[in-house]
Design goal:
The chain has an eight-stranded parallel barrel with strand order 1-2-3-4-5-6-8-9, surrounded by six helices. A two-stranded antiparallel ribbon has the order 10-11. α10 runs parallel beside α12. By secondary structure, it is α/β, with parallel strands linked by helices. β8, α15 and β9 form a beta-alpha-beta unit. It has a single domain, classed as Glycosidases (TIM Barrel), CATH 3.20.20.80. The two termini are 32 Å apart. It is built from 16 helices and eleven strands. The chain is globular and about 55 Å long.
Length: 488
Amino acid sequence: MASTETRSKKTKKSAKKKAAKKSTARSGLRSAGSIAAPAAAKKKTAKKSPASASRPAQWLTAFPKDFLWGTATCATQIDGGDLHSDWAKFSQTPGRIADGKDCLVACDHWNRFEDDYKLMKSLSFNAYRLGVDWSRMEPRPGEMDHAALNHFRGMLDSLRKKSIRPLLTLNHFTLPQWWLERGGWTKESNLENFLNFVSYIVENVGDLVSEYTTINEPNVYAMFSYMDGLWPPAKKGLSGYFQSMKVLRNMAIAQGRMYDIIHETHALKGFARPYVGVAKHVRIFDPARPDNRLDKDRAAEAEYRFNYMWTDSIHDGRLQGSLGKNEKFHDGPCWDFVGLNYYSRDRIRFRASAIAHLFISQEEVKDAPTNDLGWEIYPEGLYRLLHQFHDRYRLPIRITENGIADASDNRREEFLMAHLQQIARALNEGISVEGYYYWSFMDNFEWAEGYGPRFGLVEIDYETQARKVRKSAQSLKKMIAQARKSSR
């Protein structure tokens, strides 16, 4: 997954676990190490309601004929073979990954993409969100790996031949180790290196792809890498907080530059008109005690900082909130569509002792179904967020990630149906939702969680690299077929 994995409680019994618990309370992100699914909740998730058991198809008529039925992955999490990234080094550092395993092989997708894409096509997908790792294309400063570029072009060409529309992510957390050592996103002067990479990719693959998500989950990257110490470069504390604000500021500035580079390059080269968005992790932040003024105030603060501060900036072309005093960095909006990554909600409680966390603490899930990582399953949150982002920005929306860690595959079908029904509800109310990308196409390396969580529609045997389509994937295929048959 692209965002919210922290530490498994099986491997975190040290002081690091306590720090992770504190940091995730501040962030509003569910921690596998600090919040486990209660037995009652687990039992609840295995049940199927009478309404869902009847498999009603009426709601599927809401999806238009041109709706994008997609799935999503991340290069670092599945490709293998990239030895020059910050995650290659970080994942080999003892104590950093929950299961002690690295990302150097992952799913070996780089070498198996053709078979994986055939499998993807067999499941009726017509869209796929994938990434390209800068560290693979430029392993050392100024040295572009043209063989890697040609290989990646082959991957994109294979998708096009199968009528699967690529949505290309240009930065999905991972960085070249050499760039991170120069300060990475914390220094505005470093942006030229990154923008040169962006230009190189767009110039060389723009004939094969016209849709982009520039940056994946900037809020999550800044938090886990600079506030919580869970991802490279593993910074935290007060100094890490100030660095995280620099990261978000520079990512916003880079977004404006990337938007212009992509549009200008496509026009200059005669490529198709591009469509540029971001993939933004969003959550529902509800007060733990609905009638408590302090809880409501802290929930609103968490919502603004996590969901809107960065996107308000790129929509206005001016740095908002803690990122800057309305400083202009772009002429107007620098995105064409909104990409939402949605997984769960957080119930927020005021805690006087949480000074460093802005008095924000996270209530433990006790009365709701959860996934294998203890995150609450709350489909209605997607509907609420679709309305909020539609009302705030008036742009087309895509669900660029939505999925469940479910090794048993007993809850995934129900999860899919429940969330798709909320999208149908929004579509019927006039909200422009263009597509849905399930996370993830296959099981993968889940960052600091390692290979434990299983989000995939396709099960991976990491010993043999065998692929097995899960039952829930076949159920989704049937839903897609029904939607296409009955669409307006």
